Amino acid sequence: MLITGMALSSTAFAADGVIHFTGKVVDNVCNVSPTLNVTMDDVSIDTFHAVGDRANPKDFTLVLTDCPDTLNTASIQLDGTANASDLDTFQLDNTGQPGVASGVGLEIKSYSGVVAPGGATDPWPLDKVTGTNSLPFTASYKMTDGKITAGDANVSVQFSVLYN
Predict the structure, then answer these.
(1) Which of 75, 104, 113, 155 is deepest in the core (most CB within 10 A)?
(2) What is the percent of the chain with per-residue pLDDT over 90, rounded to a whole number?
(3) What's the pTM?
């Protein structure tokens, strides 16, 4: 009797879909410093007159070293929180908290133009002779709202190197 009851309570399973995983095993990658600190110059509220104005551009360089000759190009993807008023700029850290500036965001440009949060640069060709590559960027504060308040204007941006 027990065997009959177990047979009647069996469950039928059917596949509802398929999950495909794609990836690649790659050769060595370039070395890159995991932390880059860029000190932005202080900017006066009076520098900004209208939404979209930029101030105090600061150049910085991301350096890739010891790149193997099997890699041809690299792009840099920048991730962080987008400013709610201007999705091409990065939101200030701790927005809305006391002592934090408002009405501005941080815009980052590469040689190929603005790199919005979640976006990537066009590919840079990698130097196969020296294995060292300096990738230049410029960061600027950008007015994103009609009213700016003074305060800290720090931004944290994560980066990933994408090899092509």
Answers:
(1) 104
(2) 70
(3) 0.81
